[in-house]
């Protein structure tokens, strides 16, 4: 079966080498360093979002990405779909990305969390699924979901919790948006190899011989950030000894916008609703994206199963709530580790996204944290620019680090705690968490707070998260 849902966007997307360059390739190689205000290392979803957010405000940006654009938007590169929280959707809308992908964004209307698997034949647990579950409905937040500081008095009529969007679709939309951005020089493929960071200026040397001189370097180079290591910023890391199997699946029944998460002994199993598409014969296909946490030793064997056997394994874990389930397209796996940078700043350097924090996907929040980093950093930089301040000065960057530290650490703690609490099958723990689930379901104010937090609407929100321009 082939997935045709994204035929609007040609695989490979627009060339990253074309319109973003301010100077020709030959000229750049031989010449003096390219001068920029901001050098963003890493053109993943976080790096691209930051470049777009800053571009309309006179901040001259060099966005440097190791992979060519066609590779980043190829179906074989990243099979993940991301739960984009309501607050992150507001950011993507404010920076002009959302309109380019909204037709392929599936609203999340309900979330059902269950302590147990879907196998009705599971002898260990008659009935398979624990009777205790948490049910979040977007209707519970009617008139309540608007960010409190928005200044917009109109009640919001039950917006969705967020949206499920294929990462590939988000990347294509970001590439398209970048083409219209003034002040961005997108250099790809090129790897940032060495850095000279001091109190005055930052110099970045690229694999193709070019150099970029900037007031500030942003490490958006992911969880294995070389830039973070170069700056001597330490990390705390913890291996969950789990891998996530990820792929798109088709199922017989419609999902009605419900996201499911089952806590199984090997870790959480999520079924995330995607937009329907059509098969080669024009028939509607109901699709979801799975994030299936497993013992890494089993993963190669599971990935190698044929479609029917793989589908049967999914049904064993998820049940037949959506009818028969079969995989669609390539399967991927990701080792799961927690990573926290000990600080976000060094001389003329700041960390964003996974370079600063890599969390378990149990709550689908990693990219959302990165988007909030982007919203806060862009606001800090644009404010500094308006006041005539040096955007790379410690005074300016401290504001960003202080702003983001608490939110990021809170999510690190919550996702880490949930993962450890639920990734086991010890009877006393199961009883305690099932009772906890039942109680939590009844505590409406606590539940509402948890929903608003997952939507990215709690705390001191940056303007972009509130849907306001910078
Ligand atoms: C299984 C799984 C499911 C997930 N689901 C969700 C979800 O539902 N919702 C959610 O919010 N988050 C989710 N996440 C987390 C999310 O995918 C990440 O937080 C996000 O992709 C991080 O983006 P990034 O741009 O910071 O880093 P990356 O995507 O890692 O991008 C880094 C970029 O930097 C480039 N680079 C690296 N080094 C250099 C260099 N020296 N020079 C130039 N370029 C360089 C790389 O090529 C890459 O393109 C999930 C994660 C996993 C593993």
Radius of gyration, Cα only, in angstroms? 22 Å
Q: Helical stretch count?
A: 13
Q: Name the poorly predicted regions.
A: 1-28, 119-129, 145-155
**Strand tally:** 20
Shape: globular
* Structure ligands: flavin-adenine dinucleotide
Largest sheet: 9 strands, mixed
As a percent range, the share of strand residues is 25-35%
Coarse structural class: alpha+beta
Euclidean distance between termini CA atoms? 44 Å
What does this structure look like?
With 470 residues, the chain is α+β, with helices and mostly antiparallel strands. It contains 13 helices and 20 strands. The chain has helices at 25-30, 45-55, 69-72, 86-94, 98-101, 167-179, 226-230, 299-303, 307-318, 366-386, 394-422, 427-442, 444-454, and strands spanning 34-41, 61-64, 81-85, 106-108, 110-116, 129-137, 162-166, 184-187, 192-197, 202-206, 211-219, 235-251, 258-264, 267-273, 277-278, 284-294, 325-341, 345-346, 349-351, 357-358. Strands 5, 6, 12, 13, 14, 15, 16, 17 and 20 form a nine-stranded mixed beta sheet that branches. Strands 1, 2, 8, 9, 10, 11, 18 and 19 form an eight-stranded mixed beta sheet that branches. The protein has a three-stranded antiparallel beta sheet with strand order 3-7-4. It is globular. It starts with 24 loop residues before the first helix and ends in a 16-residue tail after the last helix. Residues 1-28, 119-129 and 145-155 have low confidence and may be disordered. Bound molecules: flavin-adenine dinucleotide. Flavin-adenine dinucleotide binds at residues 41-47, 64-67, 80, 82-83, 191-192, 220-222, 226, 244, 246, 291, 334, 353-354, 361, 364-368, 370.
């Amino acid at each position: 079966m082939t997935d045709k849902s994204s035929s609007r966007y040609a695989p490979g997307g627009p060339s990253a080498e074309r319109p973003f360059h301010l100077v020709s390739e030959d000229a750049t190689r031989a010449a003096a360093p390219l001068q920029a205000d901001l050098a963003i290392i890493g053109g993943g979803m976080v790096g691209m979002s930051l470049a777009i957010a800053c571009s309309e405000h006179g901040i001259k940006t060099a966005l440097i990405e190791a992979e060519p654009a066609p590779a980043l938007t190829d179906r074989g590169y990243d099979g993940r779909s991301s739960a984009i929280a309501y607050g992150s959707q507001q950011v993507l809308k404010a920076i002009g990305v959302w309109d380019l992908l909204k037709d392929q964004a599936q609203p999340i209307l309900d979330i059902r969390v269950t302590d147990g698997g879907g196998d009705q034949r599971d002898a260990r647990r008659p009935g398979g699924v624990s009777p205790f579950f948490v049910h979040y409905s977007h209707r519970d937040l009617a008139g309540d979901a608007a960010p409190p500081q928005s200044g917009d008095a109109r009640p919001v009529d039950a917006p969705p919790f967020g949206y499920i969007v294929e990462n590939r679709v988000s990347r294509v939309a970001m590439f398209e948006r970048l083409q219209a951005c003034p002040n961005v020089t997108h250099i790809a493929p090129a790897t940032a190899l060495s850095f000279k960071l001091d109190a005055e200026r930052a110099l970045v040397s690229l694999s193709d011989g070019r150099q970029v001189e900037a007031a500030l370097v942003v490490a958006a180079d992911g969880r294995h950030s070389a830039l973070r290591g170069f700056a001597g910023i330490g990390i705390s890391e913890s291996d969950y000894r789990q891998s996530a199997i990820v792929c798109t699946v088709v199922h017989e029944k419609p999902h009605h916008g419900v996201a499911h998460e089952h806590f199984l002994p090997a870790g959480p199993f999520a079924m995330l609703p995607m937009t329907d598409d059509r098969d080669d014969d024009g028939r509607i296909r109901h699709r979801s994206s799975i994030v299936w946490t497993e013992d890494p030793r089993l993963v190669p064997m599971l990935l190698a199963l044929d479609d029917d056997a793989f589908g049967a394994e999914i049904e064993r874990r998820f049940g037949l709530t959506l009818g028969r389930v079969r995989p669609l397209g390539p399967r991927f796996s990701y080792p799961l580790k927690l990573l926290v940078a000990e600080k976000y700043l060094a001389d003329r350097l700041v960390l964003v996204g996974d370079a600063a924090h890599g969390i378990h996907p149990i709550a689908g929040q990693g990219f959302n944290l990165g988007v909030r980093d982007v919203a806060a950093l862009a606001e800090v930089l644009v404010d500094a620019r308006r006041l005539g301040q040096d955007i790379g000065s410690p005074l300016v960057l401290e504001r960003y680090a202080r702003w983001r530290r608490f939110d990021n650490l809170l999510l690190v703690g919550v996702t880490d705690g949930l993962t450890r609490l639920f990734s086991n099958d010890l009877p006393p723990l199961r009883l305690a968490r099932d009772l906890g689930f039942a109680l939590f379901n009844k505590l409406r104010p606590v539940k509402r707070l948890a929903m608003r937090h997952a939507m990215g609407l709690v705390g001191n929100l940056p303007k972009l998260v509130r849907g306001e321009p910078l």
